[in-house]
Amino acid sequence: MKKHLILGICIAVLIGCATNPITGKQNLNFVSNSELFPTSFQQYNAFISENKVITGTPDAKRVETVGIRIKTAAEKYLTYLGQTQYLKDYRWEYKLVDNKEVNAWCMPGGKIVVYSGILPVTQDEAGLATVMGHEVSHALANHGAQRMSAAQLQQIGGVALDAATSNKSASTRQIFSQAYGVGSEVGVMLPFSRSNESEADKIGLTLMAIAGYNPDDAIAFWSRMSAKSGGAGTPEFMSTHPSDATRIANLKKLIPEAKATALKVGTIR
């Protein structure tokens, strides 16, 4: 039984690996876009119907303008990479929602929402481009599907562990289960999420540059975010995001590459 479960996990990992065209990396992915997008669009529509969408204001127009430029940059970048069909099932939308939270997100398939609470931090189009480019990059890199796949694998691992310790005492099994829970969450899931964040930062800078914005302005945005948080927050090893200092340092290293790529691809004016 134990051998069969372990073999099953190995097969699942091998079958579930797919190469992402925008990163060129092989990632765990059990969920296809044909499965993911309908659910994503459904959840997006439900959110929009339950929240106040701001329309007809300069801020709403700015969100749409930046969104279209980031979307066009993504199309241009994928064409440059020889992946013209990658975005064929995307259904882009860009909405500003009345919400005081400092937040924004992009659903798989190109559904972007910006909360009004983040606008005092973004301040201008370049700040918005930093945020929207980052969130779109999560979608392009299939991070949502990867996290779902990792969660599924985590569940499979829990079943395998239970079988592997079936001959142990109840107290021993409890210790193993607790160790598995902590080890998988902190050791695997959270670092995986931080890796996603750093990858989205890198792609986002490139999209921002192709869209005609100066990626140097991303440093100013994240510095404002850091100042807003007052340096407080969850320790980095327990967080799904890099610390502000780590993120800013990484961005500074990545900016020259983003600018160089934009020169090759061509910027949007």
Describe the protein.
It is built from nine helices and six strands; from the N terminus they run αββαβαβββαααααα. The chain has 269 residues and is α+β, with helices and mostly antiparallel strands. A four-stranded mixed sheet has the order 3-4-6-5, with helices on both faces. β1 (17-19) and β2 form a beta hairpin. The model is unreliable at 1-16, 156-169 and 171-189 (pLDDT under 50).
Strand content: 5-15%
Name the strands of the widest sheet in spatial order.
3-4-6-5
Whole-number radius of gyration?
A: 20 Å
Q: Can you tell me the overall shape? A: globular
Helix content: 55-70%
Number of helices: 9
Let me know the average pLDDT.
Answer: 77
Per DSSP E runs of 2 or more residues, the count of β-strands stands at 6
What can be said about the biggest beta sheet? 4 strands, mixed
Distance between the termini: 61 Å
Global structural class: alpha+beta
Order of helices and strands: HEEHEHEEEHHHHHH
Low-confidence stretches at least 5 residues in length (pLDDT < 50)?
A: 1-16, 156-169, 171-189
What features would you highlight for this structure?
single chain; 269 residues; alpha+beta; 4-stranded mixed sheet; two-stranded antiparallel sheet; globular
Topology readout:
Blueprint: H1 2-15, E1 17-19, E2 26-28, H2 33-50, E3 53-54, H3 58-80, E4 93-97, E5 104-107, E6 111-115, H4 119-122, H5 125-140, H6 143-164, H7 170-210, H8 217-229, H9 244-265
Parallel strand pairs: 4-6
Antiparallel strand pairs: 1-2, 3-4, 5-6
Helix pairs in contact: 1-6, 3-5, 3-7, 5-7, 5-8, 6-7, 7-9, 8-9
